[in-house]
Design brief:
This protein is an all-alpha fold. Helices cover about 80% and strands about 0% of the residues. The protein is elongated, with a radius of gyration of 15 Å.
C-alpha cells in the first residue's frame, strides 16, 4: 500500500510539471500581475480527484502508444487521451482553465503542495 501511495504522489508531481504548458516569460508576467490564487479545500479535492484520473489515463495511453508505429494512429490516440483527460477534469467538477490555474498555484505554494499531498495520501 505504501508503494502505491508513493507511486501516486510521484505521478501527481510529474503531472503537475506538465499540467500547464505556459511559456516561462508569459508565466513570469502573469505572476507579477496576478495575486496568489486562492484554492478552497473543495477545489483542491476536485483537483486531486481529477489528477488521479488523469494519471491513470496517461499510464493507459502511454502503454498503448508504445506499440504504435503509425503516426496517424498515434495522433488519434493522443487526441483521445486529451479528450478523456478533459472529461476527467470536468467530471471532478472543474473546467480545464480552473484545473490549470490550481496546478500553477500548487507549483508556487509549498503549503498548497502539502495540502494536496495529504489529500492524495488520504485517498489511497
Amino acid at each position: 500500500m505504501k508503494i502505491r501511495n508513493a507511486f501516486m504522489l510521484a505521478i501527481a508531481a510529474a503531472a503537475l510539471m506538465l499540467a500547464a504548458p505556459i511559456a516561462a516569460q508569459d508565466y513570469q508576467m502573469e505572476q507579477q500581475q496576478q495575486p496568489q490564487t486562492e484554492v478552497s479545500d473543495q477545489q483542491l479535492q476536485q483537483f486531486a480527484h481529477a489528477q488521479i484520473q488523469i494519471s491513470e489515463i496517461q499510464q493507459d495511453f502511454s502503454a498503448r502508444l508504445q506499440g504504435v508505429e503509425d503516426a496517424e494512429e498515434a495522433h488519434e490516440l493522443q487526441v483521445k487521451a486529451n479528450e478523456e483527460m478533459t472529461d476527467a477534469v470536468e467530471e471532478a467538477g472543474l473546467d480545464v482553465q480552473s484545473f490549470n490555474e490550481i496546478a500553477m498555484a500548487i507549483q508556487n505554494d509549498p503549503e498548497l503542495q502539502q495540502r494536496l499531498t495529504a489529500m492524495l495520501h488520504d485517498q489511497n
